[in-house]
Specification:
Chain lengths: 266, 266
């Protein structure tokens, strides 16, 4: 189970302010906290200031690597920003977040993944609207897996994200996403699946509860990575519990250790 | 989603003491609390005092019905105790908890269900050891559904419980149970599934967290009833969230109402 730490993202106000001020200490505090809380990868997203994304992504890579050895998840739809940042990565090969079937994105990001031998998050998003039904999500996911592996990406380096939409506007979206995860894991042995959680609860009360509930159901279908906030102890506790419940924690030793170390928010 | 309230059970110390003392006030306090907290059925179990189960089950039925209109779930493996209690039921038809394929139990409980037109919880338990693998759980569940419907029980009156075992001794049991629930719901349209949760976490830390995590995964496979403690607000909140996440709460109105009424423990 891969925990991709999501907090260093320009869509968050505090991070946007830190980016505008080039406040390395603020970024490094987030990096250290996520590293200590159990992140496997640290996502870095510098993308809301027009024209400055390549520069800021490079700065984020340097800034985070100065305080954490955790590998990075380079978060940009822009191949130029990824191309600028990749040569600066000193930790083990990063994840590129993300590729999709959109023509403007596919070739550029794929070439970088092949050149730098990275992992890839592959969004179930075609040229038009993203897939809503489980069938459409599986069809786009299958096309991604087939095109990427044909191009030379190892199947074990692909993390398919079926994309979940807000329940408030599409009450079937979470269920469709969960079904798609199960089907993709069955159809493509060795592939990984992941999902950003927070979209599911957009506009609703009890968002963290909804996000955790969706996460458990996705993990029960075999999802083996998630883009989450590892400093949220209830969420991390849910991941420990899910690993035990779904038979991925032999003798529940991981759960018991987390309990003994006081890391379980039961 | 049927919430079967589990607190009035002789295996709990306080209830055993209330049964020994025939303390109606203590039982009625539990009945009222579970009714108010959202129970759909109230389970009554009088079964640990040798030889007194028929008498005590009758007393529980009378005692609970004096303060709650909620239908009952008569909880005994003993057809004689169920036969004694059934004529006293004044609320709508109860659930009999439970029948299994064990010969000593099957015919007696089935005859009562047919006579009194009750619902039935059907345990995936044969004459020998209970089923451990998903395949064995489905096979026993299928045999129960087929034999019960052939005998005249409506499929919509059957609640199959695949029986989950402690993760500490069988780390695959929860996953097998969840898989069995999904397969039974697919194979027998109209049948219901349910599960007692707490066995899954026996002997482990963070039991309520594990129980909730297992519940979410089971609900994601279509389980539509559960034997739970409705006064546990975190558990009930998880049920509200799961109904929303799995597309069974149109426009999330149930979740939003629970939030507005202060019933969500997020």
């Amino acid at each position: 189970m891969l925990v991709i730490a999501e907090r260093i993202n320009a869509s968050r106000k505090a991070i946007r302010a830190a980016l505008e001020a080039m406040d390395a200490a603020a970024i490094q505090k987030e990096a250290r906290a996520q590293d200590a809380a159990g992140a496997d990868y640290i996502d870095v997203n510098g993308g809301t200031l027009p024209g400055r994304e390549p520069e800021l992504l490079c700065w984020l890579v340097d800034t985070v690597q100065a305080v954490s050895d955790k590998p990075l998840c380079l978060d940009s739809p822009d191949a130029a920003a990824l191309a600028a940042a990749l040569p600066r990565v000193r930790t083990k090969p990063p994840i590129l977040n993300s590729i999709s079937l959109e023509r403007a994105r596919f070739d550029g990001v794929l070439a970088l993944a092949l050149e730098h031998r990275t992992k890839l998050i592959a969004l179930c998003q075609g040229e038009s609207v993203p897939a809503a039904s489980a069938e459409d999500k599986v069809a786009l996911g299958a096309e991604l897996v087939e095109r990427l592996t044909r191009a030379g990406i190892a199947i074990g380096d692909i993390y398919v994200d079926p994309l979940v939409f807000p329940l408030g506007t599409d009450s079937r979206s979470a269920h469709a996403t969960i079904e798609a995860i199960g089907e993709l894991m069955r159809r493509f042995p060795g592939v990984h699946t992941t999902c950003g959680l927070s979209n599911v609860s957009h506009g609703l009360p009890a968002r963290k509860l909804l996000n955790r509930t969706f996460l458990v159901a996705a993990l029960s279908r075999g999802m083996d990575a998630a883009i989450v906030d590892p400093t949220d102890s209830q969420l991390m506790s849910t991941i420990y519990a899910a690993q035990a419940v779904f038979g991925r924690d032999e003798y529940c030793l991981g759960l018991i250790e987390a309990f003994q170390e006081g890391r379980l928010a039961a």
